[in-house]
Specification:
It is a single chain. By secondary structure, the chain is of the alpha+beta class. 43% of the residues lie in helices and 15% in strands. The protein has 23 helices and 20 strands. The strands form 7 sheets. Strands 2-1-5-13-14 form a 5-stranded mixed sheet, covered by helices on one side. A 5-stranded antiparallel sheet has the order 7-6-18-17-16, with helices on both faces. It has a two-stranded parallel sheet with strand order 3-4. Helix 1 runs antiparallel to helix 4, helix 9 packs across helix 11 and helix 16 crosses helix 18.
């Protein structure tokens, strides 16, 4: 009762001082600053979308808010709001003195608080300009502020500010935010019941929140609908149908972040572009990501990770170091459209919650044999072909380090030698010694010069480059591999298509391409890398129903396991390794740990996009020759052997 008496007393005081507040407004109104409402610019959430327009995240700081102009707000929402909060809104000047005295009478008659007297303008002023302290002085300020707001803004502007400023529960500020959060709808898609539920929330957001108290919120919505009916604003049919409706309510997180690594990269990119208000500026960011492929990429990476842990446990059940390695093992995957460079999926670790460090863009490791195709492409562009014979024998190299002579005797992974074999077979089976001898034939200086055309820097100054001793991030390797996947033209991987703010385009993607070789020469490499998947070290990446080309990579002591490959339209790089650069288990080669993730990803691509191009197109200028019963491809640069040399080769093989 004491609370009721205090409230009634407050209403009586307000009724008494309201006329004087009007006088006060004219006498001292200039000291009341309403600039933040006259130029209303609240913090607005930035939304991130995938390539198909599906929202993948909200980026905000403090208050999560989508902004809705008055023109966006359906008239029915305005009617529902006024029906329950301020029926005479368009008639008063910010303070409804009649409502104050009417509330006093009703509260006294009921013996409890049954009706408030604050107008929508007063509620807006209280939320935006004042504190929530319960003092007469604050209430007087509220009255004066409200009248000043009414003299400075139109009724429509006040409603726009109110419906964007007010809290609707669940972390949602503004009615557009609440409509999206609770119902996954734009304002224009809401039913009357959903509108009524929303406008009923500001009175007590926690009590009426439909995610917590669904039936209570429905009761409040029904009171709004009944009030509209009593005022004659809706007919009997609409009234009765709306009362029966039970809207579906979603209980989402505020960020709705389904691709955290993507969002982190976007935030970094925004900073590079000079956009310093990315969390409050209300931008719309349209990415190149395909959220369906992003999801299967995450699952594919996690699957290979778990399979590796299972192998580790089976091989070393009693070994404590196996448990240590299990904590250190991680992976990364990047996938892009080969022709445009649009990044379709980006996964920086097997579990973002455990490790948000993005190994795709920030992790730099040695690619091992996944680097060999660049060396072989250079050789092909110098006139070599898949049929060119290479020497696969061991050599001992001497060099000086710290004033002392050192020796280096590289080996093949299988620790054997083939003697003479074709360039195709050397790459298909990833023969280290043949590759080193090929580098010797080309010349280290010439090779480094050609590699710089790909954009590579910090090249090792010795023959170890033949084994992939350069350090690259998966992002960089993906960029360089487009030289093969995109028919000889390298394309820069990009994550953002465009950034909008209102009707203005703040940033728009521009393709960045670098010609490396001709389509014909690039096809010769693709034809060999197809064989790597079909019958070579990359067999674990093979997928039925689609042609794939690629290369495995395993660095010294199994520190890194890679698979870098592509279909006719999509390129993908997969990496695994321990975060401290310690060796993985000795069975975890690139083909064993990374290949299956690649395969699982493409199997899912075929399910999602069964119409995808499945065969590589052969460009003009390719010559097909049958050599020793096998097909081989040539071009005007990489010429086929003469018939007499082919006979000599066969004769030599007989002895």
């Amino acid at each position: 009762m004491k609370k009721i008496r205090n409230s009634v007393f407050l209403l009586l005081v307000l009724g008494a001082i309201a006329p004087f507040a009007v006088v006060g407004y004219f006498l001292v109104g200039e000291i009341y600053d309403i600039e933040t409402l006259v130029n209303y610019k609240p913090p607005v959430t930035t939304r991130v979308y995938d390539k198909n327009g599906e929202k993948i995240a909200n980026i905000f700081e403090g208050e999560h808010r989508y902004y809705a102009s008055f023109e966006e707000i359906p008239p029915r929402i305005i009617e529902a709001l006024l029906a329950i909060e301020d029926t005479t809104f368009f008639e008063h000047q910010g303070v409804n003195i009649d409502a104050i005295f009417r509330a006093i009478v009703k509260d006294i008659q009921a013996g409890k608080l049954v009706e408030g007297a604050s107008t929508i303008t007063q509620q807006l002023v209280k939320n935006r300009l004042l504190t929530r302290e319960k003092k007469i002085s604050r209430k007087v300020k509220e009255l004066i502020y409200s009248m000043k707001v009414e003299s400075s803004l139109t009724k429509e502007q006040i409603l726009e500010c109110y419906l964007n400023e007010i809290y609707f529960g669940h972390g949602y500020y503004g009615i557009k935010t609440a409509a999206d959060g609770y119902f996954h709808k734009d304002l224009g898609e809401l039913t009357l019941k959903e509108m009524a539920l929303l406008v009923g929330l500001p009175k007590a957001p926690s009590t009426y929140a439909p995610t917590k108290n669904y039936e209570i919120s429905m009761g409040r919505a029904n009171r709004v609908i009944s009030r509209m009916h009593a005022l004659g604003w809706i007919d009997d049919e609409t009234h009765n149908a709306s009362l029966l409706e039970k809207p579906k309510v979603f209980d989402d997180t505020l960020t709705q972040n389904s691709a955290p690594f993507v969002v982190d990269e976007i935030t970094r990119k925004a900073a590079e572009l000079g956009i310093d208000d990315i969390r409050t500026g209300g931008y719309e960011i349209y990415t190149t990501i395909d959220i369906r492929l992003q999801e299967v990429a995450e699952k594919s990476l996690k699957h290979s990770y778990e399979m590796s842990l299972s192998r580790m446990k089976a091989r070393k059940p009693e070994d404590e170091s196996a448990g240590i390695n299990a904590k250190l093992l991680n992976g990364a995957l990047i996938s892009l459209d080969s022709k445009t460079g649009d990044i379709l999926a980006l996964v920086g670790s097997v579990d973002y919650k455990k490790s948000p460090y993005n190994r795709v863009t920030q992790g730099r490791r040695q690619p091992g044999s996944a680097f060999k195709p660049f060396i072989y492409q250079i050789a092909i562009d110098l006139g070599y072909s898949g049929a060119t014979e290479l020497v696969d024998i061991s050599r001992t190299y001497t060099y000086e380090k710290d004033g002392e002579e050192q020796t280096w005797q590289p080996k093949n992974y299988e620790d054997n030698y083939k003697g003479i074999l074709s360039l195709r077979e050397a790459l298909v089976h990833s023969r280290n010694l043949a590759t080193i001898n090929l580098v010797n034939d080309i010349g280290l200086a010439q090779l480094q010069k050609e590699l710089r055309k790909f954009g590579m820097t910090n090249l090792p100054p010795d023959l170890s480059i033949a084994l992939g001793s350069i350090t690259l991030s998966p992002f960089e390797l993906a960029k360089y591999y487009t030289s093969f996947a995109n028919s000889g033209t390298q394309v820069e991987p990009q994550l953002i298509r465009h950034i909008d703010k209102g009707s203005k385009i703040v940033y728009e993607k521009k393709d960045k391409t670098t010609p490396i070789t001709t389509p014909a020469q690039a096809y010769l490499m693709t034809a060999i890398l197809k064989d790597v998947v079909e019958r070579g070290t990359g067999k674990s990446a093979k997928v039925q129903g689609i042609e794939l080309a690629g290369k495995t990579g395993t660095t010294n002591k199994n520190m890194d396991g890679w698979f870098a490959g592509y279909s006719p339209t999509i390129e993908t790089i997969v990496w695994f390794g321990n975060d401290d650069n310690s060796p993985m288990d000795r069975v975890e080669t690139g083909g064993r740990i990374a290949g299956p993730a690649f395969a699982m990803y493409y199997e899912n691509i075929l399910k999602i996009y069964p119409q995808i191009q499945r065969k590589f197109e052969r460009p003009e200028g390719i010559i097909e020759v049958n050599i020793n019963g096998e097909k081989e491809y040539f071009s005007d640069v990489s010429k086929p052997p003469r018939a007499d040399s082919e006979v000599k080769t066969e004769e030599m093989l007989l002895f």
